[in-house]
Structure formats: C-alpha cells, structure tokens
Design brief:
Number of helices: 8
Bound molecules: NADPH dihydro-nicotinamide-adenine-dinucleotide phosphate
Strand order of the largest sheet: 3-2-1-4-5-6-7
CATH class: Alpha Beta
Structural class: alpha/beta
Shape: globular
Oligomer: single chain
Largest sheet: 7 strands, parallel
CATH superfamily: NAD(P)-binding Rossmann-like Domain
Length: 254
C-alpha cells in the first residue's frame, strides 16, 4: 500500500443516509476532506441543499426515505449513473424515541425498527451487488452505546441498535470474501440536535453521562466523521465485522 494514501478516499463515492445533519453531515465533511465524492440523502430537500452548498462541489444529494424499500434500487442506480459507482455506503439515518418500555406501543417500536434496521438492510441489498461486482467496497453502520449496554427509556432504539451489530457480523461473514468490508461505529454521547433533544429538560441524565465518561465531555460530530474515514480507507483494509466505540471511554468506564 502507498503509505501516503493509507487514509485517502480519493476515487471513492460514498452514499451517506441522513447526511444532511448531525453525524451524517460530519461524516460527509470528513470524507470529502479525505478526497471522496459524497451523495447525501434524507427526506428534507432544503436541508440537503443547504448541506451540499456548505460542503461544496464534491457533494451531491438525492431526496430519499429509507423506510421506502421500493426506492432503494432506484437510489443506488441514480448514484451509479451520476458518479460511476457506490464504493462506500454509510447507513447513518436513524430516529430515536424516549419512552418507558411498558408504554411503548407496537407501532412506535416498529417505526424505530423500520428506519434504523430495515431501511439500512434494504440499501445493503441494493448496493452490495455493485460492490461485489467490483470486488471491493465498504459498508458502515452507525450503532450506539445502546448496542453495548442498558440505557433506560429507549427499548425500541436499543433493540434496533443491538440488531445493527448482529447485522454487521452476519454481513461481514457473507460479503467480506468478495472484498466488501462491513463495520459499525458506536458513538458515545456526541453533541448533535438529536442528542440535545434527548437531553432537554433532563440535567440529571446529562450529569450522569459526563460523570461516567472517562474523558468527562461530549464528543464532537467530527470525531465520528474521522472514524468513518478510517474504517472506509485502505488503512482499514483488514478490518471487517467490528463495532468501533468512539465514546471518550464511556463503554469501558466505571
Ligand atoms: P440527526 O437527527 O441530526 O440525524 C438523523 C438524520 O437521519 C437526519 O438527517 C434525518 O433527515 C435522517 N433521517 C431520519 N429518518 C429518515 C428516513 N426515514 N429516511 C431518510 N433519512 C432519515 O441525528 P444524529 O446525527 O445524532 O444521528 C445520526 C445517527 O447517529 C443515528 O443513526 C443515531 O441513532 C446515531 N447516533 C447518534 C448519537 C449522538 O450522540 N448524536 C449517539 C449514537 C448514535 P430527514 O429528517 O430530513 O429525513
């Protein structure tokens, strides 16, 4: 490997779901800074337009709802037609819901699973054949601390994010022989609109998080962006099937 290009994504085309805001936007920024073209998706066109304007020429967008499985193939076809390939897929789009487990309805549970798990699987189904045909590719999922330990009030989200880690392991065993690596990042508490909303009016929860984080602070969205660059880059060419915590030590702290 050319050591000067170990962390370069030049020549790669990354599709990032939910790439218009928060962690997805940081992943898009870090990946373009590392040489990739990125295509960001989401349901709100104005948000995507703003993000593309900010990122610059290396970014493009497609309005897409991950819960609409019938649109997955056309999304991948659009990206391939416009940019020549999809070599990196980042399944980042996600929704959360805070509610005691005994009050969570089947409908609410299903909506979390549909967006976070089925939406991601549907895009893997559409994108992986292109990657297998080229003999290389990188698929990333955004897991959570809720994949690793119990967090009260997020039963559906925990089920979804734990499911993602299982899906990463299975996909890694099925796709790695074809040169397609599959990994996840488990972000700790990172400062974004989603986490700010989850923390709203709950100073005790905020204090608990800081108190059990060895680095005693919230993470920056770019911390996740750079981890995504690493996992998608040639430097990680022998890394498949892992869930990398980027969490200031929360997952090993006491
Ligand atoms: P945001 O709410 O900022 O981002 C979520 C993104 O997903 C939005 O851009 C949203 O766009 C998109 N999205 C939601 N539903 C759909 C859908 N049905 N189809 C397409 N896009 C959709 O939150 P974060 O950046 O914080 O979260 C990003 C990911 O990181 C999520 O998977 C989250 O679970 C995970 N995460 C975040 C942590 C944090 O501390 N922030 C910690 C651990 C995990 P739109 O509404 O326009 O569709």
């Amino acid at each position: 490997m050319d050591k000067t290009k170990a962390f370069s994504l030049t020549g790669e085309v990354a599709l990032i779901t939910g790439g218009g805001t928060g962690l997805g936007l940081s992943i898009a920024r870090c990946m373009t800074a590392s040489g990739a073209k990125v295509v960001i998706t989401g349901r709100r066109e104005n948000v995507l337009q703003e993000a593309v304007k900010e990122i610059g020429d290396a970014a493009d967008y497609v309005v897409h709802d991950v819960t609409s499985a019938s649109d997955s193939n056309s999304l991948i076809d659009t990206v391939v037609k416009r940019h020549g390939s999809v070599s990196i897929l980042v399944n980042n789009a996600g929704i959360n819901m805070k509610k005691p487990a005994i009050d969570t309805t089947e409908e609410e549970f299903l909506s979390i699973l549909t967006t976070n798990v089925l939406g991601a699987h549907s895009l893997v189904r559409a994108a992986a054949p292109h990657m297998i045909e080229r003999g290389r590719g990188s698929i990333l999922f955004i897991a959570s601390m809720a994949s690793l330990f119990g967090i009260p009030g997020v039963v559906a989200y925990s089920a979804a994010k734990s499911g993602i880690v299982g899906m990463v392991r299975t996909l890694a065993t099925e796709l790695s022989p074809s040169g397609v690596r599959v990994n996840a990042i488990a972000p700790g508490w990172i400062e974004t609109a989603m986490s700010r909303k989850a923390m709203e009016g709950d100073p005790a929860r905020k204090a608990k998080i800081i108190g059990r984080t060895p680095m005693a602070k919230f993470g920056d969205p770019d911390d996740i962006g750079w981890a995504a660059v690493y996992l998608a880059s040639p430097a990680a060419q022998f890394v498949s099937g892992v869930c990398l915590p980027v969490d200031g030590g929360v997952s090993i702290g006491f």
